[in-house]
């Protein structure tokens, strides 16, 4: 099993210790980034990710990508599409990630990738990566419990599917439960796990599922045989004493699910 590592949060290179992947075959994507605004820089970062994902699918393997934020999912989906696979999206996240540039009050671009996948602000990143956007009903948002008012308003009027972790892929059969149709990109922001169980998160949210419940849900989706790619975002601070064991076990369990 080979893991593609994008060791960045947006265009910021993160410490190697942020990604406890020892013992795994890791291919790191670290291109030289140009000047310009953050969108130009992340587009340059993600272009080799698109190619790497497409090549892995073309070679008969399922891409597994680990990075420091959720924007990378746009590159993973673009790579899946480049390989000729028309995938829907299952998005595990404590947050909605459905802001637009206009609706975001913070301007944090990590809160925008799912909305961009669904067709908003495409000139910023999706168009540069060759990403074909999806209709709302091709996305399942899992356990998003910390929504800004603009995100809640969008989701209430959209066809985005929503559910809790325990309801994902009920029965483990193709098309079962609430999974969208066809091949799947499974994206997991680790902050979907309850903050009490996972130390050091940049954007911790309580009241969420256990790590075991999240891993179990991912295993049920994998059992359908429809997963085209797996993308894991790790928006956490550099580890402190004791963090590595928890993080290592979580990443291993998700990557081997």
Verbal overview:
The chain has 257 residues and is an alpha/beta fold. The chain has a single domain, classed as Arginase, Chain A. 29% of the residues lie in helices and 16% in strands. The chain has seven helices and ten strands. Strands 4-1-5-10-9-6-7-8 form an eight-stranded parallel sheet, sandwiched between helices. A two-stranded antiparallel sheet has the order 2-3. A hairpin with a 2-residue loop joins strand 2 and strand 3. Helix 1 (38-58) packs across helix 2 (72-82). The longest helix is centred in the first third of the chain and has 21 residues, at 38-58. The radius of gyration is 17 Å and the shape is globular. The protein starts with a strand and ends with a helix. The mean pLDDT is 95.
Question: Which labels suit this protein?
Answer:
16% strand; alpha/beta; 10 strands; Arginase, Chain A; 257 residues; globular; eight-stranded parallel β-sheet
Topology at a glance:
Blueprint: E1 2-6, E2 8-9, E3 12-13, E4 25-28, H1 38-58, E5 64-67, H2 72-82, E6 88-92, H3 113-117, H4 126-129, E7 139-142, H5 149-157, E8 161-163, E9 184-189, H6 211-222, E10 227-233, H7 243-255
Parallel strand pairs: 1-4, 1-5, 5-10, 6-7, 6-9, 7-8, 9-10
Antiparallel strand pairs: 2-3
The CATH class designation is Alpha Beta
- CATH evolutionary superfamily: Ureohydrolase domain
Beta strand count: 10
What amount of the residues lies in strands? Answer: 15-25%
Q: Name the structural class.
A: alpha/beta
In quaternary terms, these chains amount to single chain
Task: Output the radius of gyration.
Answer: 17 Å
- Written as H for each helix and E for each strand, in order along the chain, the element string is EEEEHEHEHHEHEEHEH
How many H/I helical runs? 7
Separation of the first and last Cα atoms: 12 Å
Could you say which overall geometry the principal axes of the C-alpha atoms support? globular
User: Fraction of residues in helices?
Assistant: 25-40%
How many domains would you count in the coordinates? 1
What's the arrangement of strands in the largest beta sheet? 4-1-5-10-9-6-7-8
CATH architecture: 3-Layer(aba) Sandwich
């Amino acid at each position: 099993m080979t893991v593609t590592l994008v060791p960045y949060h947006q265009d910021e290179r993160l410490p190697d210790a942020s990604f406890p992947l020892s013992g795994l075959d890791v291919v790191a994507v670290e291109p030289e980034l140009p000047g310009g605004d953050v969108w130009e820089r992340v587009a340059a970062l993600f272009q080799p990710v698109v190619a790497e994902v497409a090549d892995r699918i073309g070679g008969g393997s399922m891409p597994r990508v680990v990075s420091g934020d959720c924007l990378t999912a746009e590159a993973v989906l673009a790579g899946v599409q480049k390989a000729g696979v028309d995938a829907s999206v299952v998005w595990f996240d404590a947050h909605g990630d459905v802001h637009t540039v206009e609706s975001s009050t913070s301007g944090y671009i990590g809160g925008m990738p799912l909305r961009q996948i669904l067709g908003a602000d495409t000139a910023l990143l999706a168009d540069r990566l060759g990403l074909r956007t999806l209709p709302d009903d091709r996305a399942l948002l899992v356990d998003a419990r910390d929504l800004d008012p603009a995100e809640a308003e969008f989701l209430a009027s959209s066809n985005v599917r929503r559910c809790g972790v325990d309801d994902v892929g009920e029965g483990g059969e193709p098309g079962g439960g609430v999974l969208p149709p066809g091949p799947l990109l499974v994206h997991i922001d680790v902050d979907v796990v309850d903050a009490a169980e996972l130390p050091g998160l940049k954007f911790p949210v309580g009241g969420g599922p256990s790590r075991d419940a999240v891993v179990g849900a991912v295993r049920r989706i994998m059992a359908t045989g429809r997963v085209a790619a797996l993308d894991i975002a790790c928006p956490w601070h550099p580890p402190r004493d004791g963090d590595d064991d928890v993080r290592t076990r979580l990443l291993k369990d998700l990557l081997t699910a």
